[in-house]
Protein backbone atom coordinates (compact mmCIF):
# COMPACT_ATOMS: atom_id res chain seq x y z
CA UNK A 1 0.00 0.00 0.00
CA UNK A 2 1.27 3.45 -0.89
CA UNK A 3 2.26 5.83 1.86
CA UNK A 4 -0.28 8.69 2.31
CA UNK A 5 2.55 11.20 2.31
CA UNK A 6 3.76 9.96 -1.08
CA UNK A 7 0.20 10.05 -2.42
CA UNK A 8 -0.25 13.69 -1.39
CA UNK A 9 3.10 14.57 -2.98
CA UNK A 10 1.96 12.82 -6.15
CA UNK A 11 -1.41 14.64 -6.19
CA UNK A 12 0.35 17.98 -5.69
CA UNK A 13 2.79 17.24 -8.49
CA UNK A 14 0.02 16.14 -10.87
CA UNK A 15 -1.90 19.33 -10.07
CA UNK A 16 1.18 21.35 -10.98
CA UNK A 17 1.46 19.38 -14.22
CA UNK A 18 -2.14 20.17 -15.13
CA UNK A 19 -1.55 23.84 -14.23
CA UNK A 20 1.51 23.94 -16.47
CA UNK A 21 -0.46 22.41 -19.33
CA UNK A 22 -3.36 24.81 -18.81
CA UNK A 23 -1.10 27.86 -18.92
CA UNK A 24 0.94 26.59 -21.85
CA UNK A 25 -2.11 25.73 -23.95
CA UNK A 26 -3.67 29.10 -23.19
CA UNK A 27 -0.54 30.98 -24.26
CA UNK A 28 0.32 28.82 -27.27
CA UNK A 29 -3.07 27.85 -28.68
CA UNK A 30 -6.12 29.56 -27.20
CA UNK A 31 -5.12 33.22 -27.06
CA UNK A 32 -3.42 33.32 -30.51
CA UNK A 33 -6.51 31.74 -32.07
CA UNK A 34 -8.64 34.64 -30.79
CA UNK A 35 -6.91 36.85 -33.38
CA UNK A 36 -8.83 34.94 -36.06
CA UNK A 37 -12.25 36.07 -34.83
CA UNK A 38 -14.04 38.35 -37.30
CA UNK A 39 -14.71 41.34 -35.02
CA UNK A 40 -12.86 42.93 -32.15
CA UNK A 41 -16.05 42.85 -30.03
CA UNK A 42 -16.20 39.06 -30.39
CA UNK A 43 -12.49 38.79 -29.66
CA UNK A 44 -12.80 40.94 -26.53
CA UNK A 45 -15.76 38.97 -25.23
CA UNK A 46 -13.97 35.67 -25.86
CA UNK A 47 -10.72 36.94 -24.36
CA UNK A 48 -12.48 38.05 -21.18
CA UNK A 49 -14.07 34.62 -20.81
CA UNK A 50 -10.74 32.86 -21.45
CA UNK A 51 -9.04 35.09 -18.87
CA UNK A 52 -11.73 34.45 -16.25
CA UNK A 53 -11.72 30.68 -16.72
CA UNK A 54 -7.91 30.38 -16.83
CA UNK A 55 -7.62 32.45 -13.68
CA UNK A 56 -10.32 30.46 -11.89
CA UNK A 57 -8.95 27.03 -12.77
CA UNK A 58 -5.31 28.06 -12.42
CA UNK A 59 -5.82 29.34 -8.89
CA UNK A 60 -7.80 26.24 -7.93
CA UNK A 61 -5.04 23.97 -9.21
CA UNK A 62 -2.45 26.04 -7.34
CA UNK A 63 -4.45 25.81 -4.13
CA UNK A 64 -4.89 22.03 -4.50
CA UNK A 65 -1.18 21.55 -5.18
CA UNK A 66 -0.06 23.78 -2.32
CA UNK A 67 -2.48 22.19 0.15
CA UNK A 68 -1.22 18.72 -0.73
CA UNK A 69 2.43 19.71 -0.62
CA UNK A 70 2.21 21.62 2.67
CA UNK A 71 0.27 18.72 4.19
CA UNK A 72 2.91 16.24 3.01
CA UNK A 73 5.67 18.42 4.43
CA UNK A 74 3.95 18.97 7.77
CA UNK A 75 3.11 15.31 8.47
CA UNK A 76 6.43 13.91 7.24
CA UNK A 77 8.80 12.58 9.87
CA UNK A 78 11.85 14.70 10.55
CA UNK A 79 14.18 12.59 8.39
CA UNK A 80 11.81 12.85 5.36
CA UNK A 81 11.01 16.59 5.49
CA UNK A 82 12.40 17.66 2.16
CA UNK A 83 12.67 21.39 1.47
CA UNK A 84 11.81 20.86 -2.19
CA UNK A 85 8.14 20.65 -1.12
CA UNK A 86 8.31 24.20 0.22
CA UNK A 87 10.19 25.38 -2.88
CA UNK A 88 7.49 23.84 -5.06
CA UNK A 89 4.86 25.80 -3.13
CA UNK A 90 6.85 29.01 -3.44
CA UNK A 91 7.29 28.55 -7.19
CA UNK A 92 3.60 27.82 -7.74
CA UNK A 93 2.52 30.79 -5.57
CA UNK A 94 4.86 33.10 -7.45
CA UNK A 95 3.63 31.69 -10.75
CA UNK A 96 -0.05 32.03 -9.95
CA UNK A 97 -0.68 34.74 -7.38
CA UNK A 98 2.54 36.69 -7.90
CA UNK A 99 2.34 36.85 -11.68
CA UNK A 100 -1.39 37.58 -11.54
CA UNK A 101 -0.77 40.54 -9.23
CA UNK A 102 2.21 41.71 -11.31
CA UNK A 103 0.18 41.80 -14.51
CA UNK A 104 -2.76 43.50 -12.74
CA UNK A 105 -0.79 45.82 -10.44
CA UNK A 106 -2.40 48.96 -11.87
CA UNK A 107 -5.63 47.91 -10.09
CA UNK A 108 -4.06 48.19 -6.66
CA UNK A 109 -3.99 45.51 -3.99
CA UNK A 110 -7.58 45.87 -2.77
CA UNK A 111 -9.19 45.88 -6.23
CA UNK A 112 -6.94 43.00 -7.32
CA UNK A 113 -7.98 40.92 -4.30
CA UNK A 114 -11.66 41.67 -4.97
CA UNK A 115 -11.32 40.65 -8.61
CA UNK A 116 -9.50 37.51 -7.50
CA UNK A 117 -12.35 36.56 -5.18
CA UNK A 118 -14.95 37.35 -7.82
CA UNK A 119 -13.21 35.39 -10.59
CA UNK A 120 -12.50 32.38 -8.39
CA UNK A 121 -16.19 31.95 -7.68
CA UNK A 122 -15.99 32.40 -3.90
CA UNK A 123 -18.74 35.01 -4.00
CA UNK A 124 -21.26 32.47 -5.30
CA UNK A 125 -22.00 31.29 -1.76
CA UNK A 126 -23.26 34.70 -0.70
CA UNK A 127 -25.58 35.31 -3.66
CA UNK A 128 -29.25 34.55 -3.60
CA UNK A 129 -30.41 32.05 -6.17
CA UNK A 130 -33.49 34.06 -7.18
CA UNK A 131 -31.58 37.26 -7.97
CA UNK A 132 -30.12 37.83 -11.40
CA UNK A 133 -26.39 37.40 -11.57
CA UNK A 134 -24.13 39.81 -13.40
CA UNK A 135 -22.92 36.92 -15.58
CA UNK A 136 -26.48 36.25 -16.73
CA UNK A 137 -26.76 39.68 -18.31
CA UNK A 138 -25.34 40.00 -21.79
CA UNK A 139 -23.87 43.37 -22.62
CA UNK A 140 -24.02 44.17 -26.30
CA UNK A 141 -21.46 46.74 -27.37
CA UNK A 142 -21.42 48.59 -30.61
CA UNK A 143 -18.60 47.28 -32.73
CA UNK A 144 -17.16 50.71 -33.29
CA UNK A 145 -16.76 51.25 -29.53
CA UNK A 146 -14.26 48.39 -29.23
CA UNK A 147 -10.76 49.34 -30.33
CA UNK A 148 -9.05 46.46 -32.14
CA UNK A 149 -5.56 47.60 -31.15
CA UNK A 150 -6.43 47.67 -27.45
CA UNK A 151 -7.88 44.17 -27.75
CA UNK A 152 -4.70 42.99 -29.48
CA UNK A 153 -2.57 44.56 -26.70
CA UNK A 154 -4.71 42.89 -24.06
CA UNK A 155 -4.27 39.54 -25.83
CA UNK A 156 -0.50 40.00 -25.89
CA UNK A 157 -0.51 40.91 -22.20
CA UNK A 158 -2.58 37.86 -21.26
CA UNK A 159 -0.32 35.67 -23.39
CA UNK A 160 2.75 36.96 -21.52
CA UNK A 161 0.99 36.27 -18.20
CA UNK A 162 0.18 32.71 -19.21
CA UNK A 163 3.76 32.15 -20.47
CA UNK A 164 5.19 33.38 -17.16
CA UNK A 165 2.73 31.21 -15.23
CA UNK A 166 3.66 28.19 -17.36
CA UNK A 167 7.38 28.73 -16.73
CA UNK A 168 6.99 29.08 -12.95
CA UNK A 169 4.63 26.12 -12.62
CA UNK A 170 6.90 24.13 -14.94
CA UNK A 171 9.84 24.80 -12.63
CA UNK A 172 7.75 23.63 -9.67
CA UNK A 173 6.69 20.56 -11.66
CA UNK A 174 10.30 19.72 -12.49
CA UNK A 175 11.23 20.01 -8.80
CA UNK A 176 8.34 17.71 -7.92
CA UNK A 177 9.29 15.07 -10.48
CA UNK A 178 12.91 15.05 -9.32
CA UNK A 179 11.76 14.98 -5.69
CA UNK A 180 9.36 12.10 -6.24
CA UNK A 181 12.06 10.23 -8.13
CA UNK A 182 14.42 10.72 -5.20
CA UNK A 183 11.80 9.49 -2.71
CA UNK A 184 11.40 6.10 -4.36
CA UNK A 185 13.16 3.17 -2.78
TrEMBL record:
Highest taxon above the source species: Eukaryota
Transmembrane among keywords: yes
Keyword check for Signal: no
Entry-linked InterPro entries: ATG33 (IPR051668)
One cellular component (GO) term of this entry: mitochondrial outer membrane
Keywords tagged on the record: Membrane, Transmembrane, Transmembrane helix
Subcellular location: Membrane
GO biological process: autophagy of mitochondrion; macroautophagy
Membrane-traversing stretches: 84-103, 163-182
Membrane topology: Multi-pass membrane protein
The family this protein is said to belong to: Belongs to the ATG33 family.
Protein's recorded name: Uncharacterized protein
Native species: Aspergillus lentulus
